[in-house]
Amino acid sequence: MRNIVNIVKVFVKHWYRRKSTIFWTILFPIMLMTIFGSIFSNMGESKLTLYIQNQDRDNGEYTGLSQALMDALNSTDAFDIHEVDASQNLDEVLKEASNPRALIIPQGFSQEIQDALYNKDSPATQVILRRDVSQISDPAPGIINTVIRQFSTHLIVGDTREVVTIEEEAGESGFRYIDFFLPGVIGMTVMTTGLMGAVSINTEYRINGVLRKLATTPISKLDWVLAVVLYEMLIAFLAAGIIIGLGYLPISIFNVQVSLTLPAVLLLFAGAFAFPGMGMILARFVRDPTAADASANAIAFPMMFLSGTFFPIEMYPDFLKSVAQILPLTYFNNGLRAAMVDNQPDIAITNTIIVVILAVIFIVIGTLVTSWREK
Amino acid sequence: MPAKETVIEVNSLVKKYGALTAVDNISFKVKSGEIFAFCGPNGAGKTTTVEMLECLRVPTSGSAKVLGLDISKRSDLSKIRSRIGVLPQEFNTFELLTVRESLKFFGGVFDKHLDADELIKIIDMEEYSNILYKNLSGGLKQRVGVAISLVNDPEVIFLDEPTTGLDPKARRGVWEVLQDLKKSGKTVFLTTHYMDEVETLADNVAVILSGKIVAEGTPRRLISKYGGHQTLVVEGGGESTYKVLKNRMKDVELEPNGDVLAKIHSKSDLSDAFTALNENKVDYDRFSVRGATFDDVFLNLSGKKIVEGKLE
After folding, report:
1. Rounded to two decimals, what is the model's pTM?
2. What is the complex's ipTM, to 2 decimals?
3. What is the rounded (10 degree) CA torsion for A129, A135, A138, A141?
4. Which residue does chain A place closest to B109, by CA atoms?
5. Scanning every residue of chain A, which has its alpha carbon at the shortest distance from the alpha carbon of B150?
6. Which of A24-38, A289-303, B295-309 has the largest mean confidence?
7. Domain ranges of chain B
8. Do A216 and B105 touch (CB under 8 A)?
9. Does A374 reach chain B within 8 Å, measured CB to CB?
């Protein structure tokens, strides 16, 4: 145990003394999240979807003022407006929507405004904006606000009174790509740092002769394997922590508050053991350093794309679906998603168990095949 | 002084890799407190032998004892490892640790270990103790390697080609460290393909060629046995000297620069030569007797020279 801790300490020293590794562990996930977050946080919305339920009718027709507000919103060209009939249940409609955002113009809207115009003391008329409030970057409330303020100003010239205000309501949260993507980025980062890190540490120290020296000391093969795995686990945790932390930043475009449930933490541990374990096995069979990096890439990249990191596996053609079935990252991603975002503990636990078993298998094989002293 | 005990005893040791016999039935003994050189070209079986003694490779047959412990006995392996020091060939340690950090790391691996600063003093590198390993020159790196091999205060130290690739000054630096080790009573087992290293450092030497030991003994004994003859060099002697000596001695040569070289076959050859030169009042600049070196030993044993480890 003392040897393992000492070796891990040496690795950590190398980590912070080698500036490039700091860059890759910390900045790479940030870059990735920023890029994907900006691209996908409003994916599919070239115009902002806005459902409008106008309940203010007169003889079946929209009242003049409510129609005028709808026209004003439409004229901004920012919204893709879907009218929802007053008879329809708005909640049902929003449940199906990918961007659940709705403006409700209440009955009596027109009448209240007219009252307000003649009586300075009457309260402002309210329209209701129901939306996914977790989407902090949502530009819709700002635009709607501006439109309504102008609408008020047009009605009462020379007065700064607001006759119409917005009441925001928290509505359904919609499916956002970033929700899907964030656990994927964590999975991908834990996999790549673990797999590639273990391969490169092993080849580096085998080639430069440090392993040969260590083999002459009481340090055992198991000490070495566990030290590499533990160190890679620390690095993976650091990277995962940064990604999760980014999700919590209120200013960020990728506001996703993942839940660090017990299965999620267990799963992170299991994954952080499994992938370096895979790396130890790979490092045994590919000795040449260039070939080792290339083969680590050749395994990591397809696995990244085929394990549902970027796109749901359901979208894959059938033969790729079966490939995904045999990739460890699939179980890691599915588990993380279930535990961190979807809140499905059953699925999370099943996948955690699978990854734990894989981790044990990989580390046992990795230790057995690592050559320490020659025959 | 107590009689020197045997610390390494090798009997009929064989190591085969498939059809290739890397080490072919070798036997030798190393006595306590000596520097024992294991000398031969690349691929002769030096490293294979030393790695068997370090318990890194398993012999195909034969036996060897290090400090009285059997290298083929599983229960002895960890005991051997804790009492020997090893500098592997092409040694490297963690490149982003300082000299002191590296020594502390390797010290921490052993229950009983020497203090890092004490080791830095032994290799005379006090001013480099906080320098990162990767920023050291080749000679200093090797000295760090020697220090690391000493962390557990071993009784026997195995150094596999400790000066290969170093410039002459750096090699002398390593030699000084090794001579100090010997003075402190350590037994040093050294593999090398440098003949001058053997002559300078070794108390005893075994020459290995194609897996077989072809000669063994003190360097001086091997030189007198295999080095060939000493040579009388008469500088500036010219044609006249050549003629006079040719009548008295067997192998005489006249060099283009006027020097005359005469092989000394027996102790009387030298006095005969001077008598003849005096009687004939031959004029020459100066004379010298050139001794055989370990290079000659190797040349005579193998028929070839070693240049940077390769037979030529």
Report:
1. 0.74
2. 0.79
3. 20
4. A3
5. A217
6. A289-303
7. 6-220, 229-291
8. no
9. yes
Topology (CATH level 3) of domain B6-220: Rossmann fold (3.40.50)
Nearest CB partner across the interface for A10, out of B86, B91, B105: B105
* Helix (H) or strand (E) run with residue A58 in it: strand A57-58
| Three-class SS state of B79 | helix
pLDDT over 60 (residue B2): no
Q: Which residues in chain B have Cβ-Cβ distances shorter than 8 Å to A213?
A: 86, 88, 91-93, 145, 148
- Sheet with B69-70, strands from edge to edge, namely B20-31, B6-17, B61-66, B69-70
Residue A374 lies in a domain: no
Residues of A in contact with B81 (CB under 8 A): 216-218
Q: At what angle do helices A221-248 and A262-285 cross, to 10 degrees?
A: 130
**Closest partner CB to A216 (pick from B56, B92, B105):** B56
Shared domain check, A106 and A27: no
Nearest CA in chain B to A15: B96
Q: Give the pair of three-digit tokens for residue B64.
A: 């060897």
What is the overall mean pLDDT for chain A? Answer: 83
Whether residue A95 lies within 8 A of chain B, CB to CB, comes out as no
Domain that holds residue A275: 2-41+176-369
10 Å CB burial of residue A151 (0-12, 13-18, 19+) is: buried
Q: In this predicted structure, what is the pLDDT of residue A335? A: 92
Q: Encoding tokens for residue A37? A: 């977050």
- In this structure, are residues A328 and A306 in contact, taking their beta carbons and an 8 Å threshold? no
**Domain-located, residue A264:** yes
The sign of the CA dihedral A136, A142, A144, A145 is positive
- The token duo for B104 is 């502390």
From the list A13, A213, A219, the residue facing B88 with the nearest CB is A213
CATH hierarchy code of domain B229-291 = 3.30.70.260
pLDDT tens for B236-262 read 888 888 988 888 888 888 888 888 888
| Tens-place pLDDT, residues A308-332 | 888 788 778 888 888 888 899 999 9
* Measured CA distances, B59 to A30, B8, B9, B13, B56 (Å): 54, 15, 14, 7, 10
Shared-domain flag, residues A208 and A243: yes
The confidence score (pLDDT) of residue A256 equals 66
Residue ending a domain, choose from A149, A170, A191: A170
Instruction: Tell me if B6-220 shares its fold with B229-291.
Output: no
Mean of the pLDDT values across residues B191-207? 91
The rounded distance, in Å, linking the Cα atoms of A186 and A140 is: 30
Enclosing H/E stretch for B172: helix B168-183
Whether A344 and chain B come into contact, CB under 8 Å, resolves to no
- Nearest by CB to B108, from A2, A18, A209: name it: A2
The nearest alpha carbon in chain A to B146 belongs to: A213
3-class secondary structure, B33: coil
List of chain A residues whose C-beta atoms are within 8 Å of the C-beta of residue B93: 210, 213
Residue A375 maps to a domain: no
The whole-angstrom distance between A307's CA and the closest CA on chain B is: 36
Cβ distance A190 to A150 under 8 Å? no
pLDDT digits (tens, 9 = 90+) for A151-190: 887 777 666 667 788 887 776 655 566 777 788 888 988 9
